Amino acid sequence: MSVNQGAPNRERTVSVLNGWFMLVVLVGALLANIVLFVTAVRRAPFDGPALVLASALVFPLIVLLLTGFFTLQPNEARVLVLFGDYKGTVRDSGFHWANPFYSSGPQNLQATAIALAVQAKRTGAKSESPEPQQRRLGRNKISLRARTLNGDTLKVNDKRGNPVEIAAVVVWRVADTAQAMFDVDNYETYTRTQSESAVRHLASLYAYDDGEGGEATLRGNVEDVSRALRAELQERLAKAGITVDEARLTHLAYAPEIAQAMLRRQQAEAVIAARQKIVHGAVSMVHMALTELADKGVVQLDDERRAAMVSNLMVVLCGESEVHPVVNTGTLYT
């Protein structure tokens, strides 16, 4: 397929011959060739050499055609490439036969291994082997099943510059096999790299918590952040023909170097919020007590003694420790 440089490839779905039908045809041709060879040997004194030569030429051709069989499982596809030219993609599951000269395709195991080794060296994690799915598939086969990418925990700065640890899980699948095969070098490595980049960029757009003016935060608006992450990933991975089914944060915390300070700040905010509620309740109770005393005529208090009563009630209601009352045995005005 002739395309302009940089133009994205587009998948074309094609059909190939039924494998069982071609198996019967080729086995029959092989048996017929054997019979031809035996007949040529018996007729050697006459025209046997010509038949032997014909049988010798047909036999390797039949053997070559027998290599064209392949199978596809559900949610699996094969990209057909003939001498560097993209011919189409087979998506139908079952037993098939196609031109044996269709490329078997590079596994890209070396590229994947190098990429994983570089990432492990950068993060200090243990180096992993290429994914089993990629090692198992061959002949330009691509799995169309949903895959899960459990990202590593990254240390990034949020919108306010605070270092945070963040990780995400991405559920993705190959939607366009031509783009996945030809538009990027290795679509699995590309997906992993772009996912990490998207998570880093997302963390820099939101504050960890306590957003100003009702703005969304990483901790307080998980659903909104997940939708934003999925949208950004879809935009980044569209070049490789990848569809993102779901993207969600799996880990979110302050970095260890500021975790204690932020914990103390959260504790202080919780104490302040609790004190505000206590004071609000105490004021309501004092107001109710004074109103009840005045309405029912229990006692008449001037402003000075009303202020003293309010002070005493506030101390009793807002104090953290148990209050021990002092009994006044004198008169009210002595």
Outline the structure in words:
The longest helix has 41 residues, at 256-296. The N and C termini lie far apart (108 Å). The strands form three sheets. Strands 7, 8, 9 and 10 form a four-stranded antiparallel sheet that branches. Helix 6 packs across helix 7 (222-237). This protein is α+β, with helices and mostly antiparallel strands. The chain has three domains: 17-97, no CATH class; 146-254, Band 7 domain (Tetrahydropterin Synthase, Chain A, 2-Layer Sandwich); 260-318. Residues 107-111 and 129-136 have low confidence and may be disordered. The chain contains nine helices and ten strands.
The low-pLDDT segments are 107-111, 129-136
Largest sheet, in brief, is: 4 strands, antiparallel
* DSSP helical segment count: 9
CATH homologous superfamily label of the largest domain: Band 7 domain
Termini separation (Å)?
Answer: 108 Å
CATH topology of the largest domain: Tetrahydropterin Synthase, Chain A
- CATH class of the largest domain reads Alpha Beta
Radius of gyration over C-alpha positions, nearest whole angstrom: 38 Å
Give the helix/strand class. Answer: alpha+beta
CATH architecture of the largest domain: 2-Layer Sandwich
Chain-averaged pLDDT: 80
Shape assignment? rod-shaped
